[in-house]
């Protein structure tokens, strides 16, 4: 964590000291009284329905040493060491940017419409073979979360792998200029955030903002299967010199997975048509083998051998609810992919389920895909049209938008094999009435649908 004096922090954020000795030592930061630690600098973030300044006294009662204080919120509490700033959030971001400049750490930035968390996990696992590594925790990938992640690093952190999320233009540029990465990765361009960015071209432009903060001569590993990235690259703000590595599913890329074999608990592959070495990841699906190519590119950039990269990939621990294999009480296999969903990621998960062998019937549970803008009905119907009774035995759709998925799929399936629900408990009971111990169930939906609740019930239920 950041350890600096009160006076040093004030200088880093261009703030004015009130009520405190400048030699006072600050150890770490927190924006939440529920996580405040002894010696922390309290960051009073202002939201739509809350004002962190209202909790400053509580933060000090719980051990905070000092606080930022936004100047339009009046005077800070009497006797409380405070640094008065123009804007609390901007000051947090300045603090993180200055601290990052003072650290010897090298940073890898990862963004993309899908797969960025899994790719982040793979890259971190690879780099950890040789370096002291930190990676983004939970959803700390935005304009508050990324600065907090940087401020959690200590002086001994050698490499950090940071997710960069966004909802609109300019957000990734802000994050990359704070982080100043030595390597940048774009996993893919999908349809999430269409309601804000208007088109896939807009999404690609927003993701390419990651290059604005990339250091001179840095690595740019990007999905070569996506022509939009190639076509827009010349227009992106970027250093004069970058090392470009295209990865993807086909042999026209610099890195591509070959001899891919997929099972329910992982995938194995080689590189670029070679027979050896073989790489294994504890994640099923060809799309995850493609994302592993980004980890190979980053590992090589930072001096790891292919054997070291293979070791790291094999030891990675995926973040939960990303195609997490779970075994039910009676042997039913559940693939929990309920963390998020988009048209591209849903099709990839369906493709995975098609490839798996050794199970009885294949049951698909699909929740709404959110944040798709005006074309949300078309995207849900497209998923329905991709479902075939030759490949899936039952389809369960949950949520108002998934009604379109069910309507599109229903004519192709035998009667009763496609079912739509607006009640999660009723859906789980229905699945339990048809599922057998040797079957496999894929659960996929946007985070807002909370389908992990259905997953847990399916794991616990006695068939």
UniProtKB/TrEMBL annotation:
Listed EC numbers: 6.3.2.10
Task: Kindly state one GO CC term assigned in the UniProt record.
Answer: cytoplasm
Q: State the top-level EC class.
A: ligase
Mention one GO biological process in which this protein takes part, according to its record: peptidoglycan biosynthetic process
Q: Which GO terms describe its molecular function?
A: ATP binding; UDP-N-acetylmuramoyl-tripeptide-D-alanyl-D-alanine ligase activity; UDP-N-acetylmuramoylalanyl-D-glutamyl-2,6-diaminopimelate-D-alanyl-D-alanine ligase activity
Cellular location(s) = Cytoplasm
Its chief place of residence is cytoplasm
Under catalytic activity, the entry for this protein gives: D-alanyl-D-alanine + UDP-N-acetyl-alpha-D-muramoyl-L-alanyl-gamma-D-glutamyl-meso-2,6-diaminopimelate + ATP = UDP-N-acetyl-alpha-D-muramoyl-L-alanyl-gamma-D-glutamyl-meso-2,6-diaminopimeloyl-D-alanyl-D-alanine + ADP + phosphate + H(+)
Keyword annotations for this protein, in alphabetical order, are: ATP-binding, Cell cycle, Cell division, Cell shape, Cell wall biogenesis/degradation, Cytoplasm, Ligase, Nucleotide-binding, Peptidoglycan synthesis
Which pathway does it serve? Answer: Cell wall biogenesis; peptidoglycan biosynthesis
Q: Name one Pfam family in it.
A: Mur_ligase_C
The Mur ligase N-terminal catalytic domain extends over: 26-100
InterPro entries xrefs: Mur-like_cat_sf, Mur_ligase_C, Mur_ligase_C_dom_sf, Mur_ligase_cen, Mur_ligase_N, MurCDEF_CellWall_CoF430Synth, MurE/MurF_N, UDP-N-AcMur_synth
Where does the Mur ligase C-terminal domain lie? 321-447
Boundaries of every Mur ligase central domain copy:
110-298
Per its UniProt record, what NCBIfam families does this chain match?
murF (TIGR01143)
Which family is this protein grouped under?
A: Belongs to the MurCDEF family. MurF subfamily.
> What HAMAP family does the database record attribute to this sequence?
MurF
Functional summary from the UniProt entry: Involved in cell wall formation. Catalyzes the final step in the synthesis of UDP-N-acetylmuramoyl-pentapeptide, the precursor of murein.
User: What is the designated name of this protein?
Assistant: UDP-N-acetylmuramoyl-tripeptide--D-alanyl-D-alanine ligase
**What organism is recorded for this protein?**
Paenibacillus hemerocallicola
